[in-house]
């Protein structure tokens, strides 16, 4: 019998939020892939430029997490020059970064995650958005969200010149010291953000955790994957977004590896699939076994859920209290993908508490905020936890500091295999013997929304809803169904 | 109620994504020419754009627009109503979309939201690569768009 290799659907895979589902001979799901557009050529764009420009250029990769790129890049440039930045600079960077975390996480929770739960996963699409959410929980909640974002925006402008594309971290430290007047404003603002974090946790508890149906959905098998997890931890093994060592735990929660950022290539390798430009990172020691979970697979996940799984806890009291409850409910490690939302909310509180703590630290108004770069530049790695997970910047330069090599691994790339697995598992439940159940699109959306995949672009959005296109192919590669959400 | 300021012009785009930067280029030209109008260059989406309009009587957005079949460099004046019903797609994703953001911010901060929002879209080919500079056709549209926005400010 002639074996037909069908390439045609493969060439169609690139597209905005495109999901391709392949069925076997019996009409059951064999494979499912989630794909996003990657704008290409960023590395080439950077080569030949002075490395110190990177903290200003890299935030342009993405309008969603510019702060994460700004910080990872500044840390990588510090490392390229072998510079040890002053304590004041380190704390000022971390303080601003924690404020950004509140800003970003709260938008994700209220605008993208909460509507699924508060309005309900079965509610019509027209209502399953932030307006529907406000309709349910009241205008007052909406006001609190907008106000908290305004507070964070103002503080970031004070600290970084601009709230969206920051200009505060410079190679060797920060661009300006913090005045006492500004410090007081940060302290006052951070107090409000802590209150907002507590409020948000209560919204989650009331709307989700007190509803058994949602708890069952979170705990259920549809969204569960037993993978490895990766994230930064501080010297005490606690969650830290700005700095620390990279820790990896296995599916049973044991520490599998812990390493300095500069050693990342000893632990992470990248697998390439012919149907996508997005790579699949995996743990080198375990090897690439395909898009599968389990102890033998090198697939790992990053992001809020992963951070709570790798760390021994939080350094701030209110977040720690919330973490205990999280652990009690979901176990440790928590494999429930929808647990990402809960973890994200605990992190809002933690980031606000940490910003407040730092605003009260006498070091932040220190005058020693930048060191001169005196060493010959060569190579450096900077790693931070972006809101969506571990972010790696790795630069090589010539002796004049001109870039010769750039490697970035962003959170969504680390989570690529996880997202594909979630989409596959949901599809397997909802497509049986060629019959597609209603609600497939909703359930798939809920799966990838947990990861909050960031789509490598710095563009804005008018009207900007990510189109979603689900294509189902039969065993011969023929398109048998297409479900579109424009 | 606080007295509202006059007009804000918000240029949107990514400066290193080829023609997507056109909104920023127009805004930067307008900054040199307009005296009584606040001009903002923003590389952001959704909520941040809606929030930037607060406190003004009128907001003018300038942005790149992907309109399948249209030649690059065509300028379109649109209202929010047009965007709602238009199949045209302004590029970008993630965050909540601009219309939902506007509706949200309007619902919550009603009084300080502009009475009028006008959008100038300049058609581009969807960018796929990071690069600096505008293509010829899009570059040629910049002076005309600057004039149109200036006129719009006086309306």
State the main characteristics.
heterodimer; A: 486 residues; alpha+beta; 4-stranded mixed beta sheet; 17 strands; 17% strand; globular; disordered N terminus; B: 155 residues; alpha/beta; Rossmann fold; 5-stranded mixed beta sheet; 5 helices; 5 strands; 36% helix
Short note summarizing the structure:
Chain A has helices spanning 8-11, 42-46, 54-57, 66-80, 87-119, 130-137, 139-160, 180-209, 212-219, 264-267, 304-310, 317-330, 339-359, 411-414, 416-430, 440-451; strands at residues 18-23, 29-35, 169-170, 173-174, 228-233, 245-249, 255-259, 268-271, 280-283, 300-301, 379-386, 389-397, 403-409, 431-432, 435-436, 468-473, 479-485. Chain A is an alpha+beta fold. In chain A, α5 packs across α6 (130-137), α5 runs antiparallel to α13 and α15 (416-430) runs antiparallel to α16 (440-451).
Form type of chain B: globular
By CATH, the superfamily of chain B comes out as: HybD-like
The geometry of chain A reads as globular
Our measurement of the CA-to-CA distance between the termini of chain B, rounded to an integer number of angstroms, reads 24 Å
Alpha carbon gap, first and last residue of chain A: 41 Å
The counted number of beta strands of chain A is: 17
CATH topology of chain B: Rossmann fold
Order of helices and strands of chain B: EHEHEEHHEH
| Percent in strands of chain B | 15-25%
Structural class of chain A: alpha+beta
State Rg of chain B. Answer: 15 Å
> Roughly what percent helix of chain A?
40-55%
> Which bin fits the share of residues in helices of chain B?
25-40%
Which strands sit side by side, in order, in the main sheet of chain A?
2-1-16-17
Number of helices of chain A: 16
The low-pLDDT segments of chain B are 86-94
Largest sheet of chain B: 5 strands, mixed
Give the amount of beta strand of chain A, in percent. Answer: 15-25%
Total number of helices of chain B: 5
Family (chain B): Belongs to the peptidase A31 family.
Protein name (chain B): Hydrogenase maturation protease
Keywords (chain B): Aspartyl protease, Hydrolase, Protease
GO molecular function, one term (chain B): aspartic-type endopeptidase activity
């Amino acid at each position: 019998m002639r074996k037909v290799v069908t390439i045609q659907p493969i060439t169609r895979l690139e597209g905005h939020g495109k999901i391709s589902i392949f069925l076997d001979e019996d009409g059951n799901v064999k494979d499912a892939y989630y794909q996003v557009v990657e704008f290409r050529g960023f590395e080439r764009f950077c080569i030949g430029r002075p490395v110190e420009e990177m903290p200003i250029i890299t935030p342009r990769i993405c309008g969603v997490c510019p702060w994460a790129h700004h910080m990872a890049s500044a840390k990588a440039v510090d490392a390229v020059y072998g510079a040890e930045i002053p304590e004041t600079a380190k704390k000022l960077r971390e303080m601003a970064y924690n404020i950004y975390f509140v800003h970003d996480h709260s938008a994700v929770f209220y605008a993208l995650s909460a509507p699924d739960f508060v309005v309900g996963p079965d509610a019509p699409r027209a209502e399953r958005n932030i307006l529907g959410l406000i309709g349910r929980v009241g205008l007052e909640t909406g006001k609190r969200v907008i106000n908290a974002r305004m507070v964070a925006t103002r503080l970031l402008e004070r600290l970084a010149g601009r709230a969206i594309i920051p200009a505060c971290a410079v190679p060797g430290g920060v661009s300006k010291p913090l005045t006492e007047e500004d410090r007081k404003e940060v302290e006052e603002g951070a107090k409000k953000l802590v209150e907002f974090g507590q409020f948000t946790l209560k919204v989650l508890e009331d709307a989700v955790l007190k509803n058994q149906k949602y708890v069952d959905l979170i705990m259920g098998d549809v969204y569960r994957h037993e993978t490895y997890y990766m994230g930064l931890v501080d010297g005490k093994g606690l969650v830290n977004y700005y700095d620390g060592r990279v820790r990896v735990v296995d599916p049973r929660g044991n520490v599998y590896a812990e390493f300095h950022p500069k050693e990342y290539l000893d632990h992470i390798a990248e697998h390439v699939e012919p149907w996508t430009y997005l790579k699949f990172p995996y743990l080198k020691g375990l090897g690439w076994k395909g898009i599968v979970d389990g102890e033998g697979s090198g697939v790992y996940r990053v992001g809020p859920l992963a951070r709570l799984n790798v760390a021994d806890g939080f350094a701030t009291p209110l977040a720690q209290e919330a973490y205990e409850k999280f652990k009690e409910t979901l176990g440790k490690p928590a494999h429930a993908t929808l647990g990402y939302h809960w973890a994200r909310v605990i992190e809002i509180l933690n980031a606000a508490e940490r910003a407040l703590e730092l605003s009260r630290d006498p070091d932040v108004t220190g005058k020693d905020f930048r060191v001169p770069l005196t060493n010959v530049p060569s190579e450096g790695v900077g790693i931070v936890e972006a809101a969506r997970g571990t972010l790696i910047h790795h630069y090589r330069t010539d002796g004049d500091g001109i870039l010769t090599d750039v490697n970035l691994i962003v959170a969504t790339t680390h989570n690529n295999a996880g997202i594909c697995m979630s989409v596959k598992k949901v599809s397997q439940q909802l497509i049986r013997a060629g019959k597609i159940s209603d609600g497939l699109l909703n359930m798939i959306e809920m799966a990838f929304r947990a990861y909050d995949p960031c789509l490598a672009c710095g563009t804005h959005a008018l009207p900007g809803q990510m189109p979603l296109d689900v294509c189902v192919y039969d065993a011969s590669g023929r398109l048998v169904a297409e479900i579109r959400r424009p | 109620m606080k007295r509202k300021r006059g007009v804000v012009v918000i240029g949107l785009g990514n400066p290193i994504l080829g023609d997507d930067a056109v909104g920023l280029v127009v805004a930067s030209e307008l900054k040199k020419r307009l005296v009584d109008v606040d001009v903002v260059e923003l590389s952001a989406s959704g909520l941040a754009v809606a929030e930037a309009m607060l406190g003004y009587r009128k907001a003018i957005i300038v942005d790149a627009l992907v309109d399948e079949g249209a030649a690059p460099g065509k300028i379109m004046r649109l209202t929010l109503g047009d965007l709602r019903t238009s199949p045209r797609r302004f590029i970008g994703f993630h965050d909540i979309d601009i219309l939902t953001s506007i509706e949200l911010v309007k619902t919550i901060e009603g009084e300080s939201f502009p009475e009028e929002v006008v959008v100038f879209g300049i058609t581009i080919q969807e960018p796929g690569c990071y690069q600096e500079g505008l293509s010829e056709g899009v570059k040629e549209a910049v002076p005309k768009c600057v004039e149109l926005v200036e006129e719009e400010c006086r309306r």
